[in-house]
Amino acid sequence: MFYKITVQDHIRVPPELFGEPVENAILSRVKKQYEGVVSKELGAVIDISRVLEVGEGMLIAGDGAAYYNTTFEILTFKPELKEVVYGKVKDIADFGAFISMGAMDGMVHISQTMDDFVSFSKEKVLVGKDSKRMLKPGDLCKARIIAVSFKEPNNPKIGLTMRQPGLGKIETEAEKAASKKTEQESKAAKAHKKEKKSGKSEKSEQ
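RESULT FIELD:
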């Protein structure tokens, strides 16, 4: 989920920026220090929205830079359990799919990619046995977060599922029509097989 968070910190402004307006110098240093940071407390910092307040600067002997007690606002993404997210398939492996959610990446185990028996092809495509649905790099999808681990603070592990209703690959109209046709054909084939089996059973009884 995306949040706007207010942060307070002492920001170091080096001597080469003393000629700039204080707020501009501080904003550039905050961006350099915080943008792209990933942590359990902040999540993934996407942008520094604005500087809210700048206190008086102070100098530290032997440093030469000025330090300002600064309050600023950041835009961050923090993954939440059960949250529904949108993403794009970055890569496919024999054990699942890697999904980019923009600020962070997540992984969908092959058993969670769709409600079907799924096979992996050397072309890096996951295919459902009955539905014939496919998942490949570049596909847009909708998933739910089922696990979050910050054991490695700079490299969080996010587990996703796409098996639940309303989740999975976001199909184009043509793909939806093809999937519906395949599903109908699969149901018809199963019904025919069942009828054939039932007919054989009746003959054997006679």
